[in-house]
Protein: glycogenin glucosyltransferase
Organism: Pygocentrus nattereri
Amino acid sequence: MVLARSLRNHGTSHKLAALIGPHVSEPSRAVLHKLYDEVRLVDVMDSGDEAHLALMKRPDLGVTFTKLHCWTLTHYSKCVFMDADTLVVCNVDDLFEREELSAAPDPGWPDCFNSGVFVFRPSVETYGKLLTFCTENGSFDGGDQGVLNSFFSDWATADISKHLPFIYNLSSIAIYTYLPAFRQYGHNAKVVHFLGKVKPWDYVYDPRSRSLKGQTVDPDLQPNYLLQWWELFSSSVAPLMKEEYGDQPFHSGLSENGFHGGASETNSGPSPLPPPPPPLLPPQMSSQERKQRWEQGQADYMGSDAFSNIERKLDSFLK
């Protein structure tokens, strides 16, 4: 919903289509119909590749195979796929000048593209080949990104014009891991991608103080994209959800604690607010916990993970 609102706010001239699974509630579907030109119900596909998913410690990524349904949108000649955890911060209609399969490099392994944003041409033939490929080869990471990188295996070497600049899929994690580059190029960002397990809707937002609980950001270091996401939700999406849900809470809706993301997909009444995310600086953090927070975009970039400390560590290795 927030993604669609951000696209509309930045003046896209293209139609918007949403692919949803059967678990999405009727009120939520009604809101999506207000924001998208087309809302299509698709089956949830699962790779069943538990071994590879276990390696990634991300069993939730199996259902990302559902993404392959986008190739069935054959009433469109060309599309740009965008994950639900992306936010558009300027007009990106120029992406339609690119060809299949255009995507930005993944911050974890730049010879692979990140499948959160990519340009493609819907095709029944390509869809069939992708399903066959999945059946015969599986996925090296257990998710859609492994499949798509193996299927479009020449992306890294064949045609540089299919390499989208990183600003079209700016990982929120990369802001912390390479802060100097973000300072240099970040003002050109076009699409922000909230990678990791902790998503924007997992936070608690207080609209009165315009702040997030459990999150500390120095505004002089970087624009607070999480706050941008929540301000867009509270101003443009929450009112639509209140219209559709009525007295039925869409989690706990507006309360003394502010907004909490995510709609309740049951009719059993309000669900309690989960606790806010833990503080970014827990005492005596283990190396594994610290690694997990890095992967979730929650680095302590003002403290132990500051660039000066990273630079000092690199210097010691190089020496």
